[in-house]
């Protein structure tokens, strides 16, 4: 009824379609619908053709192999020749495309190399003025400090950078607060390697500072190094104490976020108490507290006074 398309026409059991409307004179399997002399253009969407059957070629014995004898000695199977089959070549020996082309005179770089192989900064190539700028230490103090810190480290980190270059990277990070990406570019290493170097040397520097640098000076030494202004106005002054805060990222844990929030800085911080001699020498550094702790609470808790 879809192909007849007559307005107001209702088919019944006695309705028939004339054979002149069929290409074969009657409905067939190839042309089951009326399409001729319909009084309008009738377009029939052809059905999807059935999939073609693939003919697989059987494997043939290699002509170079001689046929085996019919009688086979079952007890001598190990000495029988192996059968081989010629399965053909799955791909040609030659390549259709040449991907190893050259880009003119433009230098090509190995894509596996993530950073430049050479270091742009080295302690051996820096003069005394540059070392003071990068580390705050003169050349003599830098090499002396490196020699002392190595006594706390039994085995240095094994990287492409020398030990003095690793130590220079750590001091530049501490003094200038350079990002690891920047340090990696300067020293010719990746960002991850720069971070690993800093993480490796930081505990040794902290141990060296606690045991060799931050010490409480005896009173006779304090009297000898006390500035003249202190001798006149504060002759009995021993030390100066204060608290300082360091900004940190906001913790995800709500309790830790509350403990580290500082109402004074309006930020999440760590707070510590430090003590210096009248001439500025650091003699004591406390452990870290949350920014919520007050100066009085930290001082009383440490029983400093």
From TrEMBL:
Domain of life: Eukaryota
Domain annotation Transposase Helix-turn-helix: ranges: 160-206
Keyword annotations of the record: Metal-binding
UniProt-listed InterPro entries: HARBI1_dom (IPR027806), Transposase_HTH_dom (IPR027805)
Molecular function GO labels: metal ion binding
Cofactor(s) listed in the protein's UniProt record: a divalent metal cation
Stretches assigned to the DDE Tnp4 domain: 241-299
Protein's UniProt name: THAP-type domain-containing protein
Organism: Oryzias latipes
Lineage start: Eukaryota, Metazoa, Chordata, Craniata, Vertebrata
Gene name of the record: LOC105353729
């Amino acid at each position: 009824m879809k192909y007849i398309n007559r307005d107001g026409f209702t088919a019944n059991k006695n309705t028939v379609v004339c054979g002149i409307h069929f290409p074969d004179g009657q409905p067939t399997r190839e042309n089951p619908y009326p399409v001729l002399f319909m009084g309008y253009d009738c377009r029939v969407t052809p059905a999807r053709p059935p999939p073609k059957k693939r003919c697989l070629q059987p494997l043939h014995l290699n002509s170079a192999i001689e046929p085996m004898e019919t009688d086979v000695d079952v007890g001598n199977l190990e000495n029988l020749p192996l059968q081989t089959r010629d399965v053909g070549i799955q791909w040609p020996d030659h390549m259709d495309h040449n991907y190893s082309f050259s880009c003119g005179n433009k230098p090509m770089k190995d894509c596996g190399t993530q950073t430049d192989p050479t270091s742009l900064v080295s302690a051996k190539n820096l003069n005394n003025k540059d070392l003071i700028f990068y580390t705050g230490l003169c050349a003599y103090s830098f090499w002396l400090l490196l020699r002392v810190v190595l006594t706390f480290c039994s085995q240095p980190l094994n990287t492409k950078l020398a030990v003095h270059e690793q130590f220079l990277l750590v001091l530049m990070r501490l003094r200038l607060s350079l990002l690891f990406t920047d340090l990696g570019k300067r020293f010719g290493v990746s960002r991850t390697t720069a971070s690993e170097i800093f993480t490796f040397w930081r505990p040794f520097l902290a141990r060296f500072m606690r045991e060799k640098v931050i010490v409480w000076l005896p009173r006779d030494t304090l009297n000898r190094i006390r500035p003249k202004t202190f001798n006149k106005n504060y002759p009995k002054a021993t030390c100066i104490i204060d608290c300082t805060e360091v900004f940190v990222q906001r913790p995800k844990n709500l309790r830790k976020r509350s403990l580290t929030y500082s109402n004074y800085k309006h930020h999440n911080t760590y707070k510590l108490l430090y003590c210096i001699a009248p001439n500025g020498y650091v003699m004591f550094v406390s452990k870290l507290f949350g920014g919520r702790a007050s100066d009085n609470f930290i001082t009383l808790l440490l029983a400093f006074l």
